[in-house]
Amino acid sequence: MESTQTSEFRPLILVAEDDDSNFKLIKAIIGKKCDIMWARNGEEMVNLFQTHGENAKAMLMDIKMPLMNGLEATKIIRESNTTIPIIMQTAYAFSSDKENAMKAGATEVLVKPITLGVLRGTLSKYLPELQW
Q1: CA 93 to CA 110: how far, in whole Å?
Q2: What is the structure's pLDDT at 93?
Q3: Greatest CA span in the chain, whole angstroms?
Q4: What is the pLDDT of residues 27-59, one digit of tens each?
Q5: Taking the CB of residue 71, how many other CB atoms lie within 10 A of it?
Q6: 21 and 44 in contact (C-beta within 8 Å)?
């Protein structure tokens, strides 16, 4: 049985990802140390942010999603919060994708497939108190 210490830092990470297996991978990589809330598209992410944004420490945002993509969702979120780290993920390594993501307000852009080392390292950069 795991001992839960109240002093342990467990950041809330909002994850926008429309693909179940990609979400499961993210959850497997960070789920032991982070609380995760899942949005399946940009619209859900905006709603999640409006409800839980004040508690969230970072966001993982897929660029390509149905209903509303990650770029549109990021622009909306940035209207009310300019400081939360938004780490965007794209399956395409084109520099235009990265540029568009940064213009939309991304803090960082990762290219899929996301690896354990890259994701944990990136989150640690923005949340130094996170102990892996």
Answers
A1: 9
A2: 73
A3: 47
A4: 999 999 999 999 999 999 999 999 999 999 999
A5: 22
A6: no
pTM of the model: 0.92
Which helix H or strand E contains 39, and what residues bound it? strand 35-39
> Each residue of 62-88: pLDDT tens digit?
999 999 999 999 999 999 999 999 999
- Which tokens belong to 43? 């619209």
Pick the closest to residue 21 from 88, 103, 114 (CA basis): 114
Helices (H), 5-104: 20-30, 42-52, 70-80, 95-104
Cis peptide before 66 (omega within 30 of 0): no
Q: DSSP readout, 97-120?
A: HHHHHHHHT-SEEEESSPPHHHHH
